[in-house]
Amino acid sequence: QVLLVESGGGFVQAGGSRRLSCAASGGTFSTQAMGWIRQAPGKAREFIAGIKWSGASPFVKDSVKGRFSISRGDAENTVYLQMSSLIPDDTAVYYCASRPDIYFLYEYYDVGSYDSWGQGTQVTVSS
User: Which secondary-structure segment (H or E) carries 125?
Assistant: First the structure.
């Protein structure tokens, strides 16, 4: 059974940085792609960044490009979301999720295609 556990959330001032981690276990991740999806209060879940388990095809949504980046840990089964220049609109619960591997980058955006989810980690950005 796939288990995804996020960590690294918390309170941060606007302009600050935060790195989220997602520890993955219990599955055959070599055939998976990983995504970071966030949900702000009263809003739908929003894809933010994705990466193939191999580390190929890292991709971030245009609205956070230049501020966020996604990467895979070399040795451990971990996916990271590095966030910088945070703004209050980045306040949300951030989820790590996995889905079958992608063929095209647009597939990352399909939030409904992710079939395993972590419990989420709250990031709150104060102005």
Answer: strand 121-126
> What is the per-residue pLDDT across 57-67, written as a single tens digit (0 to 9) for each?
999 999 999 99
Q: Give which of 24, 28, 5, 34 is closest to 98, Cα–Cα.
A: 34
The rounded distance, in Å, linking the Cα atoms of 63 and 42 is 19
DSSP structural state of residue 118: -
Q: How far apart are CA 123 and CA 108, in angstroms?
A: 22
What is the DSSP-derived secondary structure letter of residue 26? S
Question: Model confidence at 76, in pLDDT bands (50, 70, 90)?
Answer: confident
Distance CA 22, CA 38 (A): 13
* Cα–Cα dist 75/45, whole Å: 30
Q: What is the full DSSP assignment across 31-97?
A: GEEEEEEEE-TTS--EEEEEEETTS-S-EE-GGGBTTEEEEE-SSSSEEEEEE-S--GGG-EEEEEE
